């Protein structure tokens, strides 16, 4: 457990800590490179510097974006993807909290199930898709099962670890004050474990978003933002591909921002970070 | 681990009494050893009997014995080694290229505030787009051949390497750099003798994380676009509806991922002298 925990908290650290911020007086400098790249891109496609059908102009991408928004296609795709994500995230997190809680609180359960779980999670997540597609088909069920799995793993690991790593001194204090077991759990262990549990939930949100795209990519049936990418790729529509990438990036960024906001609220509530 | 879980729920007194007797202590120890095997054993037996008794169709879930047989066949025929070596080559080269570039980029960003303020925002924005979303883009640009795999695996490894290196640079206390400048260290000496040794644990964490991501990306890329490799083996088995092959390949993927993770862990503890791992994390 400890290996993965250390690693996953490192993942969390690199993904939860705000991307190293540039000092505010230099903000404009950040835009130099993108603007320069955009101009270069636009110029090379306008002037036919590179002879390739794949080099679509930025204007074409913008056109595609407008077309996608005005026809409502993107909303359908995004709605399908986000609905799936929400379902998988909810199921996976819920199951993960229960399983992680059991692993953390019940030593016997931990002894019996822990090692099997640790072995199980070694399997690369996406390798499950072909198996799931046999068991659940190519439709919505297989996708949601896969997303739940993606959300489940980080929640279990971080919940169990948060509970187990309650500082022994706090537990001693609770014992000295004659806390009942229930009081110890709600008053000492859970508050101490909250940051770690939240890290798990946060990772679950990110993982399930990645998994959504992966599931749509690999179980290519139905609608979704991943399918938009596949369509663009199959029809050599670079504009659609680029548009899809930007949307995926934006959604991921929004989720990050949202989760960080919630995290700040929660850690404020407990007076620790 | 056991230490802290015992702390959570106190040992019952009657259990302590029984522990006093040597015989039961031995039994307890044995039981403790065997407990982790209970669940897999029960599942395997259920699975095997389920298939044997015809509760589960072998098409949906081939029996463990059959999967093992397929695995042995794969090893004997050399197919396994062929595909494993292809996958390993991809992941190792991609990882090496990506992490090397990542550490370099991290150093450059870490050394110059100017470059950082120009480059980092763009980098951060590009990082928001996951490897999976880059795939169709790169696919259109370079086609479905080997470069696609190397680029995506390298990208997966590059991001954590860059960010952790940069973080490692930022973590160096300013006083250390002041001392270096007082002693008239050159830039190069400062980097190699002051900053990098201090940043090493953070950078190594980035490399490990990068490897995990590279391995994950390898599987995805091979699932989508390849004609050899472990991911291909999985897709191939799926297409032929040979789930035994799929499961055998999945097991190999898991096992290799695990072994490499253990190996990196070993190197890390050697390299870092275990000083940055809290003691309670190292039980077991």
Could you give a quick summary of the protein structure above?
Chain A has helices spanning 2-16, 29-46, 58-71, 73-105, 107-120, 128-136, 140-164, 168-176, 181-218, 225-234, 238-270. By secondary structure, chain A is mainly α.
What's the SSE blueprint?
The complex is a heterodimer of chains A (273) and B (284).
Chain A (H helix, E strand, L loop, with lengths): L1 H15 L12 H18 L11 H14 L1 H33 L1 H14 L7 H9 L3 H25 L3 H9 L4 H38 L6 H10 L3 H33 L3
Chain B lengths: L1 H7 L4 H8 L1 H31 L11 H14 L1 H33 L1 H15 L3 H12 L3 H26 L2 H9 L4 H38 L5 H10 L3 H30 L12
Helix pairs in contact in B: 4-12, 5-6, 5-8, 5-10, 5-11, 7-8, 8-10, 9-10, 10-11, 10-12, 11-12
What report would you give on this structure?
Chain A has helices at residues 2-16, 29-46, 58-71, 73-105, 107-120, 128-136, 140-164, 168-176, 181-218, 225-234, 238-270. By secondary structure, chain A is an all-alpha fold. Chain A has a single domain, classed as MetI-like fold (Orthogonal Bundle), CATH 1.10.3720.10. In chain A, helix 1 (2-16) packs across helix 9 (181-218), helix 7 (140-164) packs antiparallel against helix 9 (181-218) and helix 8 (168-176) runs antiparallel to helix 9 (181-218). Chain A is elongated. The two termini of chain A are 23 Å apart. Chain B has 284 residues and is mainly α. Chain B folds into two domains: 2-56, no CATH class; 66-282, MetI-like fold. Chain B is 82% helix and 0% strand. Chain B has twelve helices and no strands. In chain B, helix 11 (230-239) runs antiparallel to helix 12 (243-272). The termini of chain B are close together. The model of chain B is unreliable at 1-13 and 274-284 (pLDDT under 50). Chains A and B meet through helix 1, helix 2, helix 5, helix 6 and helix 9 of A and helix 1, helix 3, helix 6, helix 7 and helix 8 of B.
